[in-house]
Design brief:
Distance between the termini of chain A: 46 Å
Radius of gyration of chain B: 26 Å
Strand order of the largest sheet of chain B: 1-2
Structural class of chain A: alpha/beta
Number of domains of chain A: 2
Largest interface: A-B, 50 and 35 residues
Number of strands of chain A: 10
CATH topology of the largest domain in chain A: Rossmann fold
Strand content of chain A: 15-25%
CATH class of the largest domain in chain A: Alpha Beta
Oligomer: heterodimer
Number of helices of chain B: 17
Strand content of chain B: under 5%
Order of helices and strands of chain A: EEEHEEHEHHHHEHEHEEHH
CATH architecture of the largest domain in chain B: Orthogonal Bundle
Largest sheet of chain B: 2 strands, antiparallel
Strand order of the largest sheet of chain A: 6-7-8-3-9-10
Distance between the termini of chain B: 38 Å
Amino acid sequence: MSNPVLNVNAVSKDFGGIRALDEVDLVVNDKEIVALIGPNGAGKTTFFNCITGIYTPTSGDVIIDPKAQGHARRINGKKPNIVTELGMARTFQNIRLFPSMTALENVMIGTHCRTKSSIWGAVSRNKATRREEQAVVQKAYDLLDMVGLKEFVNELATNMPYGKQRRLEIARALATDPFLLLLDEPAAGMNPQETLDLEDLIVSIREKFNISIMLIEHDMKMVMSMSDRIYVLDYGRMIADGTPEEIAANPEVIKAYLGEEHDD
Amino acid sequence: MSNESKTMNQSFVRFFLTAGCDGYAHAVRKSFLVALWFVFLTFPIMVIRVNTIENTVVWHWSRIGYVALAIFFGSFVWRWLLARKELKKDESQNETRVESVLTRMQSNPIFKFSALAVLALAAAVYPWAFNLYQTNIMISCLIYIVLGLGLNIVVGLAGLLDLGYVAFYAVGAYAYALCNMHWGLGFWYMLPVGAVLGAVLGIILGFPVLRLRGDYLAIVTLGFGEIIRLVLENWGDVTMGPSGISSIARPDLFGVKLGVVGSTQYMFYIMVGLLVFTIFCVNRLQNSRIGRAWLALREDEIACQAMGIDKMKTKLMAFALGATWAGMAGVVFAAKTTFINPASFTFWESAIILSIVVIGGMGSIRGVIAGAIILILVPEYLREFAQFRMLLFGAIMVLVMVFRPQGLISAKRKIYTYKVAEAGAANE
């Protein structure tokens, strides 16, 4: 288990005088499901934004090694689209689909960085462009089918039920051919049954695509049952990491979540 | 059956009379108050009339009655329309009758081709069937359709609010006028040059505004448009200043010089050709990988980047392509009018082109065509109403925006075909 695809080394992020992340270390190995948990405002989403290029870390290193093949490179300060091109795709906590595009088109957008037809190709609609276009449509449809959105293919994203929109976001991220899928609270706002279905989906994505998955999640049942390892963030510091059993027994984690006990 | 329609009719009348109110009495009271308020507001201009020759004041009391009556009933209609719109909101995703007819026509190949054939025939005979004046205003209308389709790429597809679009139009027009004056370069050489110049200028404008969007972008582009106009006005040595450039050559037909009528008809066909070319390109672009990237950029910039789309490249492409058509339209405009000066390229032009896109329907080719026809031809045909022309024009714009904020003909998403995994058969 020492084949890291993502290696985050002492990453800090300051907003003015506030230190949102303080020397955070984190490792994701190949084909591993890693959860990042922590109380509200702990800096989980800031961490995601730092490693996906939306923010530039104040200090520290973010190093990726796609599929753990020994081609490690530092990606600090790279633009989000470059990070996605390198193989880290994310979803958003507050769903950010393209509302007035259909589900299929949303997923097709995900293939943008893997395709290359130009303005000239678009206007002349030559053979290569047509072939690429058909492949993109087929890939998008297959992904929608895989996440269980077959009946919503031509539905506008904004008209889809909430839980389905979350699945659509996952399909869109998968369309970028990532080696690491970053899910920001994928189960937020879902009912228990939907959460269970989502858990199955995430596990099956790992099996099917052979990729690593890192998720931020508040649903402890889900986190405990599916994660290989868990990191706990509190006030911008990584206070614990380990297997679900270790985390569940860690007194510091319990303190962060439930507060300290006072004996009067 | 008749009973049913009768009750429906009754409820319709009731709905009309009480629209948005709790009951008849409330509706009447509301309309009465609105009428009273309007009587008060219009009192100084409608009723009091100072005769400056005899130094007397004339009171038109009867006008109060007209105003009150018109507003009283107008208020019912207004509220009824608003309430109807509210009712329809739930089904707003459903297309309107016009749109569904258009869609059905498009999906029927026989209908589609016969409609296209009729349009082509109409375009072919138009300059012969109508007089010079009609042909001329139709050429302007076609120029504005092309401009609208170009701006539609920037505003409608990529969602970048550009208030300085007329700058690219001016550059195209001046490029042709100046090159023609100094070096005698012909129309057909300058048409592609105008396009390239527009695109280059689009990229030049694009670079500094890459980080901006929404209101900020609108203000910067507005400033850019004004800068170009002021340069044209004040750089007299090169641009001939406010007096403009005259006797610009009309396009010639394989070296044959045509008379005024002939060249106007020729111009009309050139413009029809340019329009067909524009529609062809824009249609293919918007249903391509790049077109989808523009839409994604419009919908959500952060998500768009996170999905691997290069924001910078995509924005610059939109600016450049939008400006390309403005450059070409500018060349045609200069050749059509044979005289240009900076007064043809004021902010008002940008505003009209933007209105064409917004009123027609952002991102919709058919919408932009409809918008241009309404905004350019209607004021032209309203000339009979003289001073009320612009008032009516404004009223039409307000009504469209209140009752159809998505535009006259809204954009429809393309339905793609794909193979269903199990069956392996093509699916619609």
